[in-house]
Amino acid sequence: MDRKIEKRKWPFSRILMFSGALLLILFVAKLIFFDRNEHKMYVNRDRITISTVQNELFEEFIPIDGIVFPKTTIYIDAIMGGNVQEMYVEDGAMLKKGDKIMKLVNTNLELSYMEQETRIFEAINNLQNSKIALEQNKFVRQKEIVSLRQEIELATANFHRIQKLYGDSLISAQEFEDNERSYRFAKKQLEISLELQRLDSISAFRRYGQIDISMDRLYQNLNLLKESLGNLYVKAPADGKLSSFNIEIGQTANVGEHLGQIDIPDDFKLRANIDERYISRVTIGQEATFDFEGKKYFLTIHKIYTDVTAGSFQVDLNFVNGYPDHIKRGQTLQLKLKFSGQTNAITVKRGGFFQQTGGNWIFVVDPSDSFAVRRSIQINRQNTVSYEVIEGLEAGERVITSSYDIFGKVDKVVFK
């Protein structure tokens, strides 16, 4: 006779055991197949900064500090050495060209100049005596010729009489010949004297020129000596403000020593230090700007000092559209040195992430706003506000821009 077999039910404890085993298998499978290559980290959202990727106008520039200098500065150096005897003005004084600043005294130099001056006067006197001797010689030669002409006139008249007497046979041939020789000799002497006078005249003309040149040089030397003595008075080389003048009475000033400078008023320039990394990108005429009292001012690089000191080099910048009314020498202004004009670009705000990533990757926030994943990017230009991203991001995406110090090597950041 058939008997109904009742289905045996699993006890609750067995069901619980198998359920736990199944969950353990699923968890292990997830670790193996889903989380095998993913390192993630849970972070508090309040500890990070999230920024939105923008498509906007971008301009590459770097901030630099420019120090205000007078555009034109004339240095005052000691032309002559000596001790400071008198001071006529103080640092900061407004001077006119030629105003006396101070007086130096140099006894040895003054004695040396007096000796040179005496020698110059002696040389001038000797040249003047030479010039007088040339004049005297000219008159001696003229006197000689006048005498010879007189002798010729007498010899000519006498020869004509002798010649007539000889024609009338009243004198002998010997007497006539002697008289004729005397006449020819007198004429020859006159010819020689006239030639000597011509040669003396040419020589004297040349000597006059040489003497005049020599005397001019001696007088110039004399004037230079007087000017040199005058250089013991230090004077203002131009109209302007005396600065960097820290000289005391009794101080010794050596030849060539820098004593101070004259700053030409109402004209300024800026001098700035730039990191040596940019030395190949800085050019004459490059533009810089700064804002002052609500107005934008433009400058251009006028001069580049290529010597690198302590990792930076210097440039001088001139104002293009005037300068602020209230700036002063030595004041520091912050400038934007431009490397490009404004262009449309994908940008992300600057932040601490760059120090850890070098701009090679960034955490991009998922649209669900619950986590962010690591993504490779490529950054090109930058300024003080943002980076230009040329690959890896699109406008509207959100990224973590704060420091990545706490993230280590995770690939995913989950928000709590």
Explain what this protein looks like in three dimensions.
Helix 2 runs antiparallel to helix 3. It is rod-shaped, with a radius of gyration of 52 Å. The protein has 4 domains: 37-58 and 343-415, conserved putative lor/sdh protein from methanococcus maripaludis s2 fold, CATH 2.40.420.20; 61-71 and 267-338, Elongation Factor Tu (Ef-tu), domain 3 (Beta Barrel), CATH 2.40.30.170; 77-104 and 232-261, Beta Barrel (OB fold (Dihydrolipoamide Acetyltransferase, E2P)); 107-230. With 416 residues, the protein is an alpha+beta fold. It is 35% helix and 33% strand. A 6-stranded antiparallel β-barrel has the order 4-13-16-15-14-17. The protein is built from 4 helices and 24 strands. It has helices spanning 12-33, 107-167, 173-230, 353-357; strands spanning 40-43, 50-52, 54-58, 61-70, 73-77, 82-87, 94-95, 100-105, 233-235, 240-243, 252-253, 258-263, 268-275, 287-292, 295-309, 312-319, 332-338, 343-349, 361-365, 371-376, 378-382, 386-391, 398-400, 412-415. It starts with 11 loop residues before the first helix and ends with a strand. A hairpin with a 3-residue loop joins strand 21 (378-382) and strand 22 (386-391). The longest helix is centred in the first third of the chain and has 61 residues, at 107-167.
